[in-house]
Fold these 4 entries.
Entry 1:
Amino acid sequence: KTSLLSALYAAGPIEADEASVANTDLLTLAHDGLPVFRRKIGMIFQDFRLFEDKTARANLYMVMKATGWTEEEEIKNRILEVLEAVGLSDKLKAMPGELSGGEQQRFDI
């Protein structure tokens, strides 16, 4: 399962003649195109990790910056939108240790 999902997420080598996910050819996908591609799909890893010294908001902010988001206002609005969607809008300033395991996993999306 892990190898298949890693391949679908373009997180490892693909040994096939054809590989396409979400209308994206994984064999020709450039490294700098990964953030945009990965925003089209979603994965929740079983071994999620949040930075223990950062608030929930700061954890989400770091992921968004790392996946190509650049506009600060868009980042702020998207964080609020996502937290509202997963029922965690009241946990914006919480530290990971203050969150239950389920809440941490929802933050890791």
Note: The chain is about 40% helix and 5% strand.
Entry 2:
Amino acid sequence: LILADSFYEWGISQGRKQPFRFQLANQRPFTMAGIWEAWTSPDGQVINTCAIITTGANELVQVIHHRMPVILSPENEQRWLKSGDRQLLRPYQASDMTCYPVSQRVNSPQNDDPTFILPLDG
């Protein structure tokens, strides 16, 4: 399970790339389906890695991007952990989500500022 309070996708707005923040309508944290692996690097160090599993986009996200993370409802978290049930790999209900454009500065990991999650004016 990968915990988050939102995710970003980049679309085109006024001819340039624009990041959009997607979150649950209730603004609560959520979990995404993930996979993980521990592997040993050539120098012998154990590296833990993970990846977020994606699925086709719901009606809200598809305006911006063709895929989205698999968001799990709380009642399906244990089901995913115990079985990795592929039936859970479906888009989250669009009506339970919101999105809005945010600063393009969110695109760089060198920038770390809580104002990046605020909606752009206009």
Note: Helices lie at 77-83.
Entry 3:
Amino acid sequence: VAVANSAREPSHTAALRVDAENVLMEALSHEQRYWAGAARSAGLLGGTDGISMAAVRQIVAAGSLLGAASAAEAQALIGRVPGVGPSARVASWLRELYPPRHDDMDWLGGMQPDRLAEFHVVKELASSPELARACLTGLDARQARRVVLLLARACTDYVAAEGLLAQTMPAVVAVLADPGTPQEELLALANAIPFPMSTFDQATA
């Protein structure tokens, strides 16, 4: 899936975009080998009860997008991946891959740096409408804020992120209307939104 936004940029900027995407693709390839080895060691791959590498990629994307504040949320998160039910075992494996930082209150960490996480999330969701629907609907306030901010940042680099963000319109409206959303996040979101503000009027009508 082509996710880089090059058609709108001057040629020299487009070249920089392509170079950056190549670097991200290489970094992602290293991460995927790490996931494969860890999943194989944990006995998660193959067999009648196992999962595929495609599912592993989607699990990591869902985890990076939604995060989890508790073990129960992480188990439910796994169940959003098509063909994979909620699983404490897979949730624990994902936490071993990406533990929370020592100063993080969440139960689950995510891919770093943020740009790599954004690249992977957009790539996986754009490749699977079923995964996108599962991950972009039925969100609580914490999940909605994470989703909206990640996709808004990603819109700067990936055309596909615009369509994904548009699917979260109720969440976008909720984040903008939440008095607890920090001003810097509101400004970043407003600057990143690729569609006209009239869209919000339609969403809230």
Note: The two ends are 34 Å apart (CA to CA).
Entry 4:
Amino acid sequence: MKHSIGFIGGGRVTKILLQGFANKNVKFEKVVVTETNQEVLASLKKQFPEIESADAKNAASQDIVFIALHPPMVMDTLELIKNNVKAEATVISLAPKINLLKLSLKLAHVENLARLIPNATSYINKGFNPMTFSSGFDPSQKQVVLDLLKTLGTTFEVSEEKLESYAIMSAMLPTYFWFQWRELAGIGEKIGLSAEESNKSIYETIIASLDLMYKTDLTPAQVIDLIPVK
């Protein structure tokens, strides 16, 4: 890809996106990451040796800039880097809560502003990633961005007011279940199954249960009624 990208923040979501791109052999002219936690940065560079570490102003000067920060840090950081972001750049915020209007207050000279709610499953290119674009976003560049992010999985455009709902219903959804599945696996081993048998049982049953709930003509109540224990 004939673009350089910069990540303001090198934490979990940056790792997820970089791994998703790597899985699909997506190449960039340059990947610049700024991260103040040196342990996090070292871990990221070990996993992705090609990245360059630099300060936030350098990362902000790339063609596509990802704002990968927690919401409380976003506005102050944008104030710091706003003069380094090119007018023709694409800026994609990965943070919830900070809307496009607030982003544009700091980056008034940038028309190509977008927000993406990333999903951890993008790590294996099976993400479910809603995004929204500013009204002035260049249509041709929008397609470039969508084509790039679709390598991570299902990426689709929605109205901005729905992004926070998707953050709950998609981005946070795995955390509601992962701990339960891990606990079930431990129980399985305690009652006589091997780790492999326990994991296979959980995986196969979860997939079939999802299909039963969402890919049949049964109502949710009818599905639930198939098992007497509640």
Note: The CA atoms of residues 35 and 41 lie 6 Å apart.
